[in-house]
Amino acid sequence: MRESAVAVVVFLFLSWAVTEGRLGWFSDTLADAQDQAYDALASLEYHFASPVAPPAGTPPVVFVDIDDDTVQAANISPYLFHRGVLADLLTRVAATQPRAVYVDLNLSAPSQEPVLDRRGTARFPRSAGDEALLTALRAPHAFPVLLSQPAVFGEPLSRFGAACWVTPAVITDSGDTVRRVPRRWADGPYPVSEALFQASQPGGFQCPDARRGSSPPRDVYRTALYGEPIVFHEVPTSGARTYAWPGLSVISARTVLAQDAPVLEPGALVVVGRTDADNLDMHGSAVGSLPGVELHLNALMTLLAYRHPVVALDPIASSLLAFAAMLLAILAAPLLSGLLTRGLTRLGVRRQVGDVFEHPIMWGLLFGAAFLAYRYAGRFLDFALPIVSLELARLALGRRLNQLATKTLKMAKLLN
Hints:
Blueprint: H1 2-20, H2 25-45, E1 61-66, H3 68-74, H4 83-94, E2 100-103, E3 115-116, E4 122-123, H5 128-138, E5 145-147, E6 151-152, E7 155-156, E8 163-167, E9 171-173, E10 177-180, E11 190-191, H6 192-199, E12 248-252, H7 253-258, E13 269-274, E14 282-285, E15 288-291, H8 292-306, H9 315-346, H10 358-377, H11 384-396, H12 401-415
Parallel strand pairs: 1-12, 1-13, 2-5, 2-13, 5-8, 8-11
Antiparallel strand pairs: 3-4, 6-7, 9-10, 14-15
Helix pairs in contact: 1-2, 1-9, 1-11, 4-5, 6-8, 9-10
Domain CHASE2: 30-333
Pfam families: CHASE2 (PF05226)
Keywords: Membrane, Transmembrane, Transmembrane helix
């Protein structure tokens, strides 16, 4: 009981240290431990199918994948997707009357090389493909066309009726790693996932007037520090029979371009992006390096499936949930350890080694509770600080390090 009481006090202190960040490198170290704990949960969940589906009435999400087959079939430069082919692709997508379309490509500059005049001023001539894309974007649409920059080939989005600027920026934690859903900062542009989530709602997405203007506001690419944790699932290649995210399907852009009749389901949220081998938009995430478009898809599906508000859960509330899980583990671990000890005693194992299982059982209970919360509720239940608190409590009560090492070795021998 003394050890448990000390662990509670230590946990409250560590939670304060992480939340307030006033202990310098120590607070940073604890925050890094929480990030690593989240990465362990995300990596375990990544290859499973999600048990949670978006509620009935949610429009389907279709990822139009500019994959290796598309790039090779079009016989185009692998570094800049042909603007004329993109114009054809967007025209075909628009024919299905989607709920919204997001294009995860950089369209800020024309595809031609700049030309210098006598004064040294650079001019950017437009290709026929550039002009075709401008024509496709100027066409009237009843749905928003979300773009990753405030201008297309130097022309502000105010000249394109349905176009709206959203930011493709992502939130990175320790290790330059993406773990969180980004949320809108002040009067800046909406992040991709938040804009598409709003488009899925009955009222649809309303583009702020400022995002159609020609002059970007200050701090335009800044988003809030943190949103909810992203629940990561593998985005399969086109033609896969099963999908980890219910409500998400993938179709190759080559398939869309090759069919005369529309192949997309009407009223869908359509995301167009690249995953081919020459795609340069790669980011570190909790589950490894992923194309930027897959980060947006996982963030969107997290919002759609778990119906989270975009604003993250308050750190105090998150700490209280972790505290409750630690108390349950403290109460349950001795009972389970006692049952295990009695079972081992019947098998002839000395009773003195039975107590070495108590803390590993606590660790297992904390990790199991965190995994269930992540998988079924889309919440990150920190299990790193409770484990650190329990071990610091053992040290604070005079347990010597060599005694801890001896018990650990005994447990290892039993397991082997």
